[in-house]
């Protein structure tokens, strides 16, 4: 086994490959690079729009913020500035809030090197009564929506639309999995492969309240780890809440930064 990359080097790699040179992470979305800003524009006003990366400093930050507000106003789309705690300038959060952005709940950026993961970390252990199944049909998209609503109380419509768009764009590849308790979906999780970066990113995994703490999230992470490794990925990225932190750390993920979504609504 090779020596692990240092946290500093791993974070720099993530910033370069997944942010500064980012490709769209949703079908029909586009990424624009202008004046040090990397932003993703969804195909529809209701899609996710946001600032992925900003090469700015204290002298250029305020003008950059106002330019992005003006741009998205012309699109008629709310948007998110995805901020990381190591971003410059250090007072960027205060500048965003002064401009009218509202902070949402922070999450921790975790990255794992697949070559450093133990075999045990890649083993699924499902609780009794739970099965994992791939999402491959339009009917499955309804189950993903049901799982999202059960886990988070909302978000089902957006989850369904995301699955349908992915199935239409790439029907041969499985990107989303369901955890089923009999005929009932109790969790759903997806993975994105980012070509040319060696990264896969893991999203979702929220679980219906009565099924939490039984190993479903861990099993879904393990399943996606296995697929990412089979596809030749070298790194896995997750934005996770404190609830997931102990699980990810036991699996070999490292906490590298804190990411906070700053939302601007027109």
UniProtKB/TrEMBL annotation:
<protein>
    <submittedName>
        <fullName>GCN5-related N-acetyltransferase</fullName>
    </submittedName>
</protein>
<dbReference type="InterPro" id="IPR016181">
    <property type="entry name" value="Acyl_CoA_acyltransferase"/>
</dbReference>
<dbReference type="InterPro" id="IPR000182">
    <property type="entry name" value="GNAT_dom"/>
</dbReference>
<dbReference type="Pfam" id="PF00583">
    <property type="entry name" value="Acetyltransf_1"/>
</dbReference>
<keyword id="KW-0808">Transferase</keyword>
<dbReference type="GO" id="GO:0016747">
    <property type="term" value="F:acyltransferase activity, transferring groups other than amino-acyl groups"/>
</dbReference>
<feature type="domain" description="N-acetyltransferase">
    <location>
        <begin position="130"/>
        <end position="266"/>
    </location>
</feature>
């Amino acid at each position: 086994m090779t020596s692990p990359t240092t946290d500093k080097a791993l974070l720099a790699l993530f910033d370069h490959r997944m942010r500064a040179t980012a490709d769209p992470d949703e079908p029909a979305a586009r990424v624009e690079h202008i004046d040090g800003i990397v932003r993703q524009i969804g195909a529809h006003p209701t899609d996710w729009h946001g600032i992925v990366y900003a090469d700015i400093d204290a002298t250029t930050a305020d003008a950059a913020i106002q330019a992005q507000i003006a741009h998205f106003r012309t699109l008629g789309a709310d948007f998110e500035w995805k901020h990381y705690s190591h971003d410059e300038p250090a007072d960027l959060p205060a500048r965003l809030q002064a401009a009218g952005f509202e902070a949402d709940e922070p999450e921790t950026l975790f990255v794992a090197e697949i070559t450093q993961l133990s075999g045990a970390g890649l083993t699924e252990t499902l609780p009794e009564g739970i099965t994992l199944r791939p999402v491959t049909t339009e009917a499955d998209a309804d189950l993903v929506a049901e799982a999202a609503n059960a886990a988070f109380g909302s978000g089902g419509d957006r989850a369904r639309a995301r699955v349908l768009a992915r199935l239409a764009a790439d029907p041969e590849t499985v990107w989303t999995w369901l955890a089923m308790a009999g005929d009932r979906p109790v969790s759903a999780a997806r993975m994105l492969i980012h070509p040319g970066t060696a990264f896969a990113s893991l999203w979702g995994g929220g679980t219906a309240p009565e099924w939490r703490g039984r190993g479903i999230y861990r099993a879904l992470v393990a399943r996606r780890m296995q697929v990412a490794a089979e596809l030749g990925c070298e790194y896995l990225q997750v934005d996770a809440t404190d609830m997931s932190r102990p699980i990810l750390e036991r699996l070999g993920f490292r906490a590298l930064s804190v990411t906070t979504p700053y939302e601007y609504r027109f």
